[in-house]
Amino acid sequence: MYPARYALRRDDGMLRLAQWHDLEGFFVGRETAYDRYENPGEEPDSVSATLRAVSWLDAADDRPTRTINLGDALVEVLDAHGRVMGDYDAWDARVTITKDSPDALLTAYVGMLPAVAAEWVWDTWRAAMPTERNLWAALPVGQREAWTEVAQTVHFRAMRQPYPALAHEIELDGQHVHDLASFFCAIGEAVNGPGGYCGSSLVGMSDLLHHAERPTAQQPRLVWRNLTVAESGLARTVQVDGRTMSYFDLVMTVLSEDGIEVVRA
Questions:
Q1: CA pair distance 182, 134, nearest whole angstrom
Q2: Is residue 53 located within the same domain as residue 87?
Q3: Among 104, 168, 178, 214, which residue carries the largest CB count within 10 Å?
Q4: Taking Cα atoms as reference points, which of 134, 146, 148 lies closest to residue 176?
Q5: Is beta strand 237-240 parallel, antiparallel or unpaired with respect to 243-246?
Q6: Which of 110, 138, 157 is the last residue of a domain?
Q7: Full-model pTM
């Protein structure tokens, strides 16, 4: 049997209920980083996922057809050793078991549908955590939101200091910044190294930078290499307080407001 890649736990600290290898129909989200500004969603999404070849972690021999109401639960992503890498909240979760079937059906509400490409990112990180920058550039534009989703989940699950410590000079490799999600991948690695996280929205990035530890009284400098790539990649416009702004100008405004000097390199 293949090693378990996922597990299910009630959101009350209890022991795991089950674990399994394949999770079908869970990673289906197609929201882009732009949607948070252009098409903001307010209601939670529902997900219906099949858990393949479930290993139940209790002693029951007989499992009649039934639906178990778990309430709030966590879908955990496991590493190769069965340790939790990250987790997803699943509210009002229900598991339907069919007698004599090795599979089960999970239905739940989630804050945002897990990104389509996030399964690939989890598999990549499961094989080896990132040790070099720009691995996210292997994802096509339009799917790089999956990288920041995983980076965010791992960042907060690992209980790292939520706010970064900013060096006086921060180097951003901008050669692949072709859209807004690409920028969040790049700024995360500029601030926190390979696989690092520094927001998946401008509001989130601003919060992290505003509260970041600043070891010196000098204004942090963001040395942005290949800045012209972002000027083109972030040329898309959005309405902000009645004004039309490009996302590039919006990014630059947020960085300036949070005391970050941008240096073209």
A1: 10
A2: yes
A3: 104
A4: 134
A5: antiparallel
A6: 110
A7: 0.94
